[in-house]
Prior knowledge:
Radius of gyration: 14 Å
Number of strands: 9
Structural class: mainly beta
Amino acid sequence: MDIRYAVRVFAFKDDKVACIKYKNINKDYFDIPGGKIENGETEIQTCIREFKEETGMDIDELRCIGNIEIIYPNSNKKFVMKTYIADKVNGNPMELKNNYSYWLPIDELISIEKRFAITHLLDDELVKYFESEKINIIFTCDQNHNVINMKIKEC
């Protein structure tokens, strides 16, 4: 199985979350900013770099809230993501080469059909895990990023 190690960063403002919408690959799908950990890079460095690359905004005061694994059995891929919250965000969301970025109302994001599994952490039945800061969830998805199974592992 092809495994990719990455980070995702949740940032909140009022009742909104920073999110991105892809332009090309996975066109019109919504995601939480983040990306692949590069060689020699710490998780925090990856969070700061990827968030800036995908939103145009700077972040600080990051705290790790747990792990998310997303498995795509049809393509034999697995994403292992350290998940963070940024308590400080500076700047405004921008349109970039590969994606748009937004402060999107949470209730709007969770009603959108085209979204990646990690956005389901904001669903009513999972949002409590943000408060615990002990997220450890495995999502299994089909080729269209729909969650077909979810397993919550105890920390």
